[in-house]
Amino acid sequence: MLKLGVLVSGGGTNLQAVLDAIKEKKITNAEVGIVISNNAGAYALERAEKNGIPAKCISPKAYETREDFHRALLAELQNSQVDLVVLAGYLVAVPPMIVEAYPNRIINIHPSLIPSFCGTGFYGLKVHEGALNRGVKVTGATVHFVDTGTDTGPIILQKAVEVQEGDTPEILQRRVMEEAEWKILPEAIHLIANGKVKVQDGKVHISK
Q: Which member of 9, 51, 146, 172 lies 3.0 to 4.6 Å from 91 by CB, making a disulfide possible if both were Cys?
């Protein structure tokens, strides 16, 4: 059984999609062991508690240095014996210290088709603003492994979403979540939990 540590900064809709997929057996051989947020007011923590899952706030504001914060986060993941770290709308950069402790065992959901509209500065609504400002006809979401760069790790799954006339960043954000994020994040976890994902030469290979 793969034990997941889900890191989230806000409402936790992607967390909910994972919890629903586990209940519906769309994800097998995995369970959420802990939910951690950098934000004490994150509704994701409440979602976790309602589902009987340990929930903890580890905020950079509570520590004297960034390194102390990183050490506390890593210690919590290790103490919880997490096998896979899932960044589900986590707006804090994961430091090399944690990436190196969990090589190819940290995944992130990003609301664009990487390599478009990703990297430093592209998060939340800014991604969708960028897509609309550029006038793209298709956007989407990507699940990828996390390396020491920003949105540069090996891509696991992508799903395209059509941009429609009259879209605002908020409308597009919702469509990308509903049509892509909430589908491919659970699917990626299911594939990893069932031994279907391998990384070779910087690329992901998925077996049938």
A: 9
